[in-house]
């Protein structure tokens, strides 16, 4: 649990790293994750876990910089089938597939 970094996400889009006692950018959060640490993001107002939202923001920012992250047909499928079909796939198989690939 040493490698868990708790972040507070504020309504004004700022992110506060409780370990460093400093505000951080999405880019620096991505760097923290690349160093092997795990983050947990909590909404500062509601105390709700918003980790998935923050991680998604990082992925979208990186995709914006590279102009693409996932193939367009896959993005269409994600939108078309949404949580109904793909949720189970993403939760159970995608992580395992990427681990095997890496």
Task: Give an overview in words.
With 102 residues, this protein is an alpha+beta fold. The protein is 54% helix and 18% strand. The protein contains three helices and four strands. The protein has helices spanning 26-34, 51-66, 72-101; strands at residues 4-9, 15-17, 22-24, 38-43. The protein has a four-stranded mixed β-sheet. A hairpin with a 5-residue loop joins strand 1 and strand 2 (15-17). Helix 1 (26-34) packs across helix 2. The radius of gyration is 15 Å and the shape is globular. The model has no long low-confidence stretch (mean pLDDT 87).
Q: Give the biggest sheet.
A: 4 strands, mixed
Number of strands: 4
Helix-strand pattern, N to C? EEEHEHH
Shape: globular
Into which percentage range does the β-strand content fall? 15-25%
How confident is the prediction overall: mean pLDDT? 87
Oligomeric state of shown chains: single chain
Number of discrete helical segments: 3
Q: Which residues form runs of ≥5 with pLDDT under 50?
A: none
What is the terminal-to-terminal distance? 24 Å
**How large, in whole angstroms, is the Cα Rg?**
15 Å
Could you give the order of strands across the largest sheet? 3-2-1-4
Structural class: alpha+beta
Considering DSSP H and I runs of 4 or more, what fraction of the residues is helical?
40-55%
């Amino acid at each position: 649990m040493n490698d868990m970094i708790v972040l507070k996400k504020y309504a004004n889009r700022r992110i506060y790293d409780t370990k460093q006692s400093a505000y951080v950018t999405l880019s620096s959060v991505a760097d923290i994750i690349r160093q092997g640490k795990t983050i947990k993001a909590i909404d500062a107002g509601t105390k709700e876990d918003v980790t998935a939202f923050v991680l998604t923001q990082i992925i979208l920012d990186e995709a914006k910089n590279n102009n693409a992250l996932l193939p367009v047909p896959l993005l269409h499928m994600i939108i078309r089938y949404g949580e109904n079909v793909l949720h189970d796939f993403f939760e159970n198989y995608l992580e395992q597939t990427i681990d095997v690939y890496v």
